[in-house]
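User: Can you predict the 3D structure for this chain?
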Amino acid sequence: MREEALKVLQCPFSGTPLKVDRCLKTDAEGEIEVGILSSESHRFPVLGGIPIIKPARQTVSLLRLIESGEPERALLAALAPPFPRSRGARYLFRTGELLRLRGLVGAIETYWHARVKNSIVNSACTFEEALYFFFRQSAWSSLGPFNYFFYRRSDPTFVAGLALMSVVGRDGLLLDLCCGVGHFTRTLAQHRDHTTVIGFDEFFFLLYLGKRFLAPHVTFICGSANLPLPFRQREFTYAFCSDAFFDIEGQWGCARELLRTVDERGVIMLVHLHNPLWPHSYRGSHPLPARAYRNLFESRAPKFFSERTLLDDYIAERPLDLAQEPTDKELASVPAFSMIATLREGVFVRHSTFAEPYEAKALEINPLYHACREADRFLLTLEVPQEYRRDYPELEVVLPPRVEFDIALLEAARNGVSSPEVRRLLQRRILVPLPPRYLRAGTANRC
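Assistant: Here is the predicted structure, written as structure tokens:
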């Protein structure tokens, strides 16, 4: 965490400024790696370079470990996933026996801390391996979250968000609300500058993966969108939230906080809002119709756009047309929509297609494709996990089932030679820009 970030932070409980109470460790660039921040009323731990700005009941044990000289244990406690499900564990929880078997609880905690330490913290693991550990070897043991975060750059909701990136300028600060592991955070930081982007999410382990693998130079803050945001008045020029706002229970309060923290001439973007009238495979916790979001952000003149239209236009490399807004009746008939709320001139017009920034050497064949070499060409076949296909039925709108292109094209692109064909492959997510150490070694999609 850079100390400059304190200029935009405040305590969400007292509204008073935050300051560095203790700095126990800094990284090679002088950023705070382990420490404690304090306000007039509260103290907050910093672990892995990430401030955890949550209620005292959620941070008191971490603060005690830091103050007792055990910052590693504090980090492991913050990272440890829930225990794996088992018949025995379910029985103990159901009967209450686990509350009395404190020695067993301590032993399980020690076991998981050791697993996290060896598998994640002190390991040269990849993003894929770390994600697998958190979502497949713990109580979350589910393919859904793993697929979501691992294939995030392929799914239609992400591509629809890319379509709206033409609206995001390079002025001021940008808040990526509910940023998860930071896929959009990384793209936004490359489009702008990493010092002007702040990622905010409730789940520390997601931010830890984001800081370690996707956007190491971005400031990440761990906190709850259901509480007052820990940012000062009018600090942001842009606020961006993708595929998450409908899961916030206190949407009215969060909307008020976005209106407070975003400059009056700033831009608030909510990407991929679920239509509650549509039968989604995952509906979301608290989806609202467009008219309800219009009421929440009424003071910033919000406009809404069909996600499918955004997606189709981006894939076809057509301009982003924000001059035409569908009616509420038309929006009621689409599965998902996006909102832009701003009083700024020059936003609700036609924009050129967003050119996704990428590092040449980071281009990879999308891991959803199985790639075979035949002479001097790649032959790609789409192989989508069943669960992921069920969650994203529009996936093949983005990804064609079969593709072939010259091997030399990818080699040239990785050497910095761009071309319309490379841009087309990137636009269709056949090629995706992945950070270093994203894919597990030995699992490349080649034959």
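The chain has 18 helices and 18 strands. Residues 90-96 have pLDDT under 50 and may be disordered.
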